[in-house]
Design a protein that fits this description.
Layout: H1 2-5, E1 9-13, E2 16-21, H2 23-26, H3 29-36, E3 40-44, E4 52-56, H4 60-64
Antiparallel strand pairs: 1-2, 3-4
Length: 70
């Protein structure tokens, strides 16, 4: 959701801002793996032009949101 509605996002890591820019620049496979330890696929959003679509790969999403593992 953040990628669709935000002009800028900040990735926080260990209490510091790791990156702060547009969702397209910051929501990358490498950044999300480094910060959250999850494997994702990032692709252009099919409807929101210029915005990324982030899809979680496997069980890594459960570590971000415990409800996903129910």
């Amino acid at each position: 959701l953040v990628a669709c509605w935000s002009d800028r996002i900040a990735l926080l890591w260990q209490g510091s801002i790791l990156a702060c820019d547009s969702p397209a620049k910051e929501l990358t496979q490498a950044n999300l793996k480094e910060v959250y330890g999850v494997d994702v696929h990032v692709m252009p959003h099919p409807v929101r032009q210029g915005r990324p679509l982030v899809m979680f790969d496997g069980s890594g999403a459960a570590s971000l949101c415990p409800l996903l593992s129910l």
